Amino acid sequence: MEDWFSRTQQLIGFDKLSLLQQSKVLVVGIGGVGAYAAEMLCRAGIGNITIIDGDTINKTNINRQLIALHSTLNQPKVNILAQRLQDINPELILDAQYQFIEKEEIDKIIKNNRYDFVVDAIDTLSPKIALITACLKNKTKIISSMGAGGRIDPSKITFADISETYHCGLAKAVRKRLQTLGIKKGLKVVFSTEQTERKSIIRTDEERNKKSTVGTISYLPAIFGCYLASYTIRKLIGE
Questions:
Q1: How far apart are the first and last CA of the chain?
Q2: What is the pTM of this model?
Q3: Which sequence spans correspond to the domains of the chain?
Q4: Of 13, 79, 183, 228, which sees the most CB atoms within 10 A?
């Protein structure tokens, strides 16, 4: 009888599937982008996943976030996603942490856990920079998501080094902050070359560490998440 991972094994072979099953991956930020990345990693057979997020689900998440339903409102995102991932793979080794990670904690998390790969889906600048720099310092492989909001064309999504990004406000902020730390390149990212719809941006200081909110469409964050998962999986199996 075929098992649930048999089609993956048929595609990539037993040895590469075994590599995925033995891999340990961290996903930080499990909103519109990160939750899709985590689920695609789980469905591909990654055997050990840590998810970290300190947010709860609200109504504005429903238009794009995998775990956002009327039945899950006000619940921690990590709890809902953890249930999904363990229902997909009951044998998954899963660490679900309901917290906003602070700069002081991130270096210790990366240094002590020896992740095979880190997926950065954080949408606020300070913890994002802290995670990126901790991974680069500890030589931990990382793929980072830039901004998925304010865009509608999936054909404009691509991979690049952070030094090669443009038309993305978040990427610009990340570049500038990294440059002050002496880092000009060496970070692989997913970003969109599509120019942001300026009318979609609302300036606000209400949300944690955010200076604005950006309008989004249902499919763009999901595709960003799939790009993150694709890069991670292909690197883990040596593609």
A1: 29
A2: 0.94
A3: 3-235
A4: 228
